Amino acid sequence: MAKARILVVDDEQGMLEACGTTLRKLPETETVLERDSRRAAERLAEENFDLLITDVRMPGLSGVDLLRVARQRDANLAALMLTAFPTVETAVDSVKLGAADYITKPFLPADLLAAARRLLEQKWLREENQSLRRQVERPYAFAEIRGQSPAMQKVFETIQRVAETDFDVLIMGETGTGKELVARAIHQRSRRRDGPFVPVDCGAIPDELMESEFFGHERGAFTGAQTRSLGILEFANKGTFFLDEISQLPLRLQSKLKMLWHNADLV
4-128 and 150-263 share one CATH topology? Predict the structure, then answer.
């Protein structure tokens, strides 16, 4: 999974540094500190962040103003508001704009760390659920494998042997013979069983959208790309990525996938 990016905005240098020191304890996370609220607004308009942590009262733009700017670029950006002067009006405005939490200064570093971790995990789960919903909407799923014949017992034995390895697996067969079922069974018996199983029908995705589906895209990458979207390959990290109808995979994507196969923990 790519590093999560956190933007922390506070006009008090000491508070800014304390937040940075605390948040850098989060693994696979980049923390960006910004004391100037106007500069922070520019960065929110130009860059991608996964979490905004901002003071409410600051010279120039307030935390609520920053949250409004952030919402224009990314409606799903998680936000955590910090304030030494809590008011009902500010809290209501923040919630209306989608702030997920509100912490009153002074606060314990452990409280900030716990809130940031929770918001990042919630954002990741939302994006994962969106990806899974996209998969469910496509004709990928089948029932579980069943069979007691000697031929099927041989298939089960082969599945078990393959599942214990770290090799890429090529499953061949006529349409309707259950290639995805075999792939899913291998996944369920492999050391990646706790990771996601992500099946993709290469013939069901339009050619012009395939690269975006696989690798994700940034906001504005093409007409209709209103927000950043993570690719299905990233969701398959530490799990199993099953390419159905791989013969229909465009040649231009094969070199990119080959590089990923050498660097990602995928089966």
Answer: yes
